[in-house]
Amino acid sequence: MSGNVLEVRYKVISRQMESMNHAIAALQEVANSKPPNSPEKQAAETCVKSLSDTLSKGFAFAAWYSKGYTDHRAKDLTAFLNFQTSVATATGSLLTNLLIPTWITEKHSLLMSFKAPKDRKEEKEDDASSDVPTNLPAEPIRNAEEFVCLTYLAFIQNILGRLRTHVMSVLALFLALTLCLSSYPFDPRQTLSAILVVLFVGLGAVIVKVYAEMHRDATLSHVTNTTPGELGSEFWLKLFTFGFAPILGLLARIFPGIGDVVFSWIQPSISSLR
Q1: What local confidence, expressed as pLDDT, does residue 128 receive?
Q2: How far apart are CA 248 and CA 189, in angstroms?
Q3: N or C: which end of the chain has fewer CB within 10 A?
Q4: Is 63 exposed, middle or buried (0-12, 13-18, 19+ CB in 10 A)?
């Protein structure tokens, strides 16, 4: 994730709104085609009611966001809170009334029968609905699954945004510490340099381990269209970008000559601020 977290979240919300429209249309069609008092009709009507309420709250949030997203004083997130609460309620309704009763009738494992994209193209079009019960069409199930997945995706994005904030804070504090120790001859120099090296190695190992495990996660890999279990060149490039400034600060502390060169670059900027 990069940029403003609320802006990134709003992209997911726009996807949720689109998914809700599709799910409501498909479920309404099911409700109209089923006999009165049938379980399918009651489940579809319950889900449509919950989704319609969520959709109205989503429009209210969109109206607030379109007016105040550039105003730093717009701190009243009541519309956003109401929408999120409604999304959770609609997700629970879809899971309870529609998806779980459908999932428990499926016979094939999504993990064991997973096929590569090349093999998927060779499947027949009706194979995608082979696990859907005959009393419900495939389209409402797929739309409901998409909406539920987007709800969990929004939660995952929140966690990733917080992790990014923590990592950036740690790197900024480490860089500030190295520049502070490089700008004044604190003693004992060798001991402080050794402590910085230990801190850098320890922090680097933890950050690499956390991000590598996330990058290898099968679910997150499918979401980001990367190969599960593999660390590609993009991962190492981003990791190097994150660690370049702390490494430069650490080298400036260990080797004073590098620090003199760095300070010679920033000295004109500091002088211009006086």
Answers
A1: 42
A2: 18
A3: C
A4: exposed
Residue type, 180: C
Give the global pTM. Answer: 0.67
H, E, C per residue of the chain: CCCCHHHHHHHHHHHHHHHHHHHHHHHHHHHHHCCCCCHHHHHHHHHHHHHHHHHHHHHHHHHHHHHHCCCCCCCCCHHHHHHHHHHHHHHHHHHHHHHHHHHCCCCCCCCCCCCCHHHHCCCCHHHHHCCCCCCCCHHHHHHHHHHHHHHHHHHHHHHHHHHHHHHHHHHHHHHHHHHHHHHCCCCCHHHHHHHHHHHHHHHHHHHHHHHHHHHHCHHHHHHHCCCCCCCCHHHHHHHHHHHHHHHHHHHHHHCHHHHHHHHHHHHHHHHHHC
Q: Which residue has the tokens 């996330």?
A: 214
166 domain-assigned? no
Peptide linkage before 185 cis (omega within 30 of 0): no
Tokens 């590098």 correspond to: 258
Query: Which CA distances in Å does 179 have to 182, 200, 242?
Result: 5, 14, 17
Query: Two tokens at 151?
Result: 């709800």
How many structural domains compose the chain? 2
What tokens does 237 get? 């490039």
User: Do 32 and 85 fall within a single domain?
Assistant: yes
Average pLDDT over residues 169-197: 81
Instruction: Let me know whether 209 and 138 are in one domain.
Output: no
User: Are 86 and 211 part of one and the same domain?
Assistant: no
Let me know if residue 92 belongs to a domain: yes
pLDDT tens string 215-230: 888 888 877 777 777 7
Q: How far apart, in whole angstroms, are the C-alpha atoms of residue 78 and residue 197?
A: 46
153 is written with which tokens?
A: 């995706």
